[in-house]
Design goal:
The structure is a single chain. This protein has eleven helices and eight strands. The chain is α/β, with parallel strands linked by helices. Strands 1, 2, 3, 4, 5, 6, 7 and 8 form an eight-stranded mixed β-sheet that branches. Helix 9 runs antiparallel to helix 11.
Length: 273
Amino acid sequence: MPKAQETAVYTHGHHESVLRSHTWRTAANSAAYLIGSLEPHMKVLDVGCGPGTITADLAALVPDGHVTGVDHAAGVLDRARATAAERGLDNVDFAVADVHALDHPDDTFCVVHAHQVLQHVGDPVQALREMRRVTRPGGLVAVRDSDYAAMTWYPGSAGLDDWLDLYRRVARANGGEPDAGRRLKAWALAAGFTDVTATSATWTFSTPEDREWWSGLWADRTVASAYAERATTGGHATRDQLAAIAEAWREWGRREDAWFAVLHGEVLCRKDA
C-alpha cells in the first residue's frame, strides 16, 4: 500500500458557512458529467465526500450497487451518515481516508468520484494514481474541480479582486492548487490514464436568492471560518482587510445586476481493461 503523502491543509475547514455551500451540492448540479455513465449495480467510491449530499445522490442512482464515501476529516462524516439515514439509504457507508493512500485493494470499484478534492491535496497526481489503482479495469475515475482564476463576475469590484488574490495566496500557502480545474487533464495523463474525456461546466449565481446565498456564505467564510484564521495567522491579511472583503461581497450581492460564474474542469478517465 502506498505511503500516505498528505501535506496540504484543507483551506476552508468545516465552519457553517462552508457546509452551507457543501450541503447545497447534488449529483445533478455537481456531477452531471458522470450520471449518464452510472448503472444500477455499480460499486462506487466517493472521495472527499464531506457532508454526503452528492454521496447520497450517487447511492440512489445505483440502487443495486453500493457507495462508500470517504473523507480526511472524521467529524464531517457524522453529518454524511445522517444525510444517508434521512434518505433511507442502506447501500452506503462512510470512512476516514487519505486519497494519497486509499485503504482498499486494487480493482475494487466500478467508479471512483471526487468533487472539489484535488485542489486541496498535496500531490494530486499521486491521488489520481491511487484512485486509478482501486478502480476496476474498464471502470471510471471522475474528477471535477473549480478554477479560481477563471471565476468571473459583474459588476467589477476591487473588494472581490482582493478576495480572489487573497484566496489564491492562502490556498497555495496551505499546499493546494486553487486553479485546479484547468490542470485536471494534465494531472490525469501524468497519473497514467490514456483514455481521458475532458469537459467543463459552470455554476451561475444571478437571481436575488442566489446572489444573497452566494455572497452571504463567502462574506461569512471570509471572517469566521478556518480560511479566515489561516489568512490572518499566515500573515496574508489583517482582520480589518477580511472585514472589508466581506463587506464587498455583501455589496455585490445587493446589486440587482450582479452575476457570478464558477468554472469547473471535469475529467472522465477510463482505466485500461
